[in-house]
Amino acid sequence: MHSGVSKFSFPTTIYFGAGAIDELPQYLKDVGIKKPLVVTDPGMLQTAVFPRVEGVLRDSAIAFGLFSQVNPNPLDSDIQKAVDMYNEEACDGLIGLGGGSALDAAKMVQVIAGHGGKVNDYDISTGGNENIKGPLPQMVAIPTTSGTGSEVGSCSVITSVALGRKFLVCSPLLIPAIALLDPELTMGMPAALTAGTGMDAFTHCIEALSVKDFHPMCDAIALKGIEFVAHYLETAVKEPDNIEARGYMQLAAMMGAVSFQKDLGAAHSLSHSLSAVCHVPHGLANAICLVPVMKFNKENCLEEYAEVAACFGINTFDMSREEAAEKAIEAVADLKKRIGIPDKLSDVGVKEKDLEELTEKAFLDGCHQSNPRSCTREDLKELYREVL
Ligand SMILES: [Fe+2]
Q: 102, 168, 276, 310: which has the highest count of C-beta atoms within 10 A?
C-alpha cells in the first residue's frame, strides 16, 4: 500500500452512445452556452459529420460561429484567427469538433478568449500554465477519431511558426466540461487512420498501466481500455460500419486519456521525436515502437503485463508471471500485424541518418522520465535500432 495522500480526479461529464449528437442542444444549455463557436478543420466540412452537427444546431435554432481552418498541427495563428472570430461573432462558448488537433485548438481558444495574451504566455515549460486561473468559456468536445482522448485531457499542443517550436499548455481548467462520444461520428474513418489512432489509445493504456505511481482507479480504467482494444480494434479496422466496434474503440480512446493522467512512458518519447523529425503520424509511431518498449520494460512490469495477457483472453492460470508477460508482448505484436501496421520504421520513411537527431529529441522529451525502467540516451537509440 502506498504511503501518503493520493489525488484521484475524473471531472469530465461524458455522454456516450449512437445518436448522442442529437442531444447536443441540451448539453450546450446544461453548461450555459447560447452561441458556440464550432472549431474544426477544413477536411471535416467535406465529411458527413459536419452537416449532421450543423443540422442538429439549426433544428434547435442555435446560432453558432464556425472556424474551420485548424491545421493538422494547430498553429498559434489559427488560435488567434479563431479568437478574433469568437469575439466578432459574440460567442459565449466552444464546440471542439474533430480529431486531437481540432480539440486542442478549441481548448486554446478557451484560454486566449478568456484571458487574452498569446499562446506562449501559457507554455508549461516556463510555468505559464500558472497564468490560467479561470473562469474560462465552457467547451463541449466532440471527437471524430478514437485515439488521443483529448476530449477528457487537460493539455493542448500548439505550434508557434514564429518561434519554431511546439508549446504544451496544460491546466485542469482545459478539461472540457462535456465530452460527447457518438460512435456514428467515427464511422467514416479510413482503415489506416482507425489502426493508427487505435494503437495510440492502446499505447496510452499500456504506458499508463506501466507507470509506477499509485493510482488503482487509473489502472483499472487502463486495463478495461486494453481489453476493448484487444477485442474490437481489428473489427473497427476491417468493418468500418460496425457500430459496436466503433463504440468500444471510442471508449478505449477516452479511457486511455483518463488513465494517462498517471503519465506515459518511453514509447511516447520515441514517437514524439519520430513525428517531429520524420513526420511519422503519432499513432503509427507508437504502434511501431510499443513492442520494443514492452520488451525493454518487461522485467519491471511482469505483474502488469500478465494482466494485459488476460485482457487478450489468454488463460494465464498455469503460467509463471514471466511467461504471461511474454504472451502479452506476443499478443500486442500479433494485433499490430493483423491491423496492417508496418514492422519497421524504414517502412515509414525513417533513415539510418535520422537516428542521432531522433535519439537527441527523444531523450529531451519528458515522457520517458516516468517509464517504469529508466532510459539512457543509448537505451533510446537501441530501441529505435531494434525497429529500424
Ligand atoms: Fe499518444
A: 102
